[in-house]
Amino acid sequence: MTYKGMFVDDQELVYAETLSTPEHLQFQPQDVEEVALLARKIVGENPIIIAIDYRLDEAPAGLQADQTYKGSALAQHLRDASIEHPDQDFALVLVSAESKIKTLYRPDKTAHDLFDRVYIKEEINNQRAAIRQELVSLCKGYEKLRAVGNKYDIIDLMAGNDDDRPHVDAQEIRTKLAEAAAPHVAARILFSLIDRPGPLLTTEYACAYLGIEPGDGQTVTQVMRDAGIAYEGVFGDAWPRWWAHRLESWAQGIFNRRATGLPAADRARMLAESTGKEFEPARSPWNDSPNELRTAVQN
Fold this sequence. Notes:
elongated
């Protein structure tokens, strides 16, 4: 199946091809028009993902000076339309040549989140395969969110089980999902769990917990997958995460105590003995020692 996307830019429409993945996702290039007309046109095409360049006001052919706008203005029109037709909701991605744009559109810096992800054009060129994978994951995720008809169960969306429920099925999340008027609202809730350490951890955090160097992340990834620790819910195919409570329980079975009660050197040794793999103990960023009880995540 090939997902349908649209890429809106007033200049560099070549990025429609750059963002596309053959046989999986095809972006259709779209030039700039008057904002309300363009929003209606895009919605009428029923794409599952839309990528918008931030600076739509640099070469807006046919628009008067007082009709020009930035990508966020178009995004607002599109989000308003998706509230009216949630079964046709879509992922929204912001693309920009300006490196500062990620800071401007960080979820905790804005009053409301218009975009699922923000990409710098230099990143797209240098990390094309990874970003293409993320875009396809967004399509798959929105397909799942569309299908449930605004009846969002957090455990179903996260592909969890009854043991996972106490760790994510909090009243605050239940209330937000119950009030979610469209898939993009549910997607925002899921990304709030994916993007911040909590019930889900990145591989770097998992390595720190296990007392091993981040460079061993690839080796321990397969070990943790075999142990059933992986998050396999919506967006998990492109944003690898690990259930924190599953990791803690599994590690306790290896270390016979809480992992943080052992120096990194001991954790790495015991993990190696248990799995038959080789691991380098994490070294403290403060004194370069592998004998610290806690190790920091390197950003």
